[in-house]
Specification:
The chain has 5 helices and 2 strands; from the N terminus they run αααββαα.
Length: 133
């Protein structure tokens, strides 16, 4: 999604080819082109096309995001950068002393963070999802 909403596409009439965005997708994922091949990108793009978030231009090897696709990409990216990444960092590398700290001695940010984690757990339980093993 980072690669799809780049401002560089504006100069090309909001269109792009898979070859043009592949290096940017690899960079955004933080991996090598061997790990995320052009074929993998095309497969992911076909899923976006099936969901009507992206469209292929007729008679060309170029694509463009739909209006809804652009909005959804921006929403997911904002959620990732503002919520998911910080929450994940706290879950994967928590400070061990935090669990022993009394609730009233925690900062407001820590209390809010814990509330978000608890509410997400309740939401996951309510919709019947289970954590992957």
């Amino acid at each position: 999604m980072h690669a799809l909403v780049r401002f560089a596409q504006i100069a090309a009439g909001n269109t792009f080819s898979t070859a043009e965005i592949h290096p940017h997708a690899v960079d955004a994922l933080g991996c090598s082109a061997d790990k995320y091949s052009l074929g993998s990108l095309r497969s992911d793009m076909s899923k976006l096309r099936a969901k009507k978030l992206m469209e292929k231009l007729p008679h060309l090897r170029r694509y463009r995001l739909t209006r809804e696709g652009y909005s959804i990409c921006l929403l997911f990216l904002k959620l990732f950068e503002r919520i998911y990444a910080p929450l994940t960092a706290g879950l994967l590398r928590p400070f061990t002393g935090d669990s022993n700290l009394q609730q009233q001695k925690r900062t407001q940010l820590d209390r809010l963070y814990q509330k978000v984690v608890d509410d997400l757990d309740k939401l996951i339980a309510a919709v019947g999802l289970k954590a992957a093993a």
